Amino acid sequence: MKKVEYNDYIKEMTEALPRGAFLTVKSGDKVNTMTIGWGNIGYIWGKPVFMVLVRDSRYTYQLIENSKEFTVSIPFKGMKEELSFCGTKSGRDFDKFKECNLKKLTPDHVSTPFIGGCDLHYECKIMFKQRMNPENLDGNLDKKWYPHKDYHTLYFGEILGCYFDKDI
């Protein structure tokens, strides 16, 4: 795995993210991963940042609320079954690592693992979080994405390291 700049593979990341990536969180001795299809990389407060969204109904929400970090692991191709399982099953009921035979890789700066078999990995320290205020959301987006009023909390993570693990 080689260390790269956070924006070296931005095009590949933004093309792969809608197909799914693994958001992994560790709190105490509990580790869970979930599939995300939304996120954003940018530069805020003088730092590279990965912003992820988690609904409070998710098991991952309980963990990330008690954590100061997260990782994002993105497969550019493949891992469709693993992404599907981790996006439809709860860590409350399943050990996703065991069920999907996911390998935990150790990052350099945080204790939350990466997911082996992915191409691109980000390790992040939470800098800021904000629960969505529906009053500030465009009505069409609210209607389309939040019919059950299960809004996200946005987590802004300073990217401490970015790693590439395969050949394109």
UniProtKB/TrEMBL annotation:
Domain Flavin reductase like: 22-167
SUPFAM superfamilies named among the record's database cross-references: FMN-binding split barrel
InterPro entries membership: Flavin_Rdtase-like_dom, Flavoredoxin, Split_barrel_FMN-bd
One function term, GO molecular function aspect: FMN binding
Pfam families: Flavin_Reduct
Similarity remark: Belongs to the flavoredoxin family.
Protein name, per record: Putative flavoredoxin
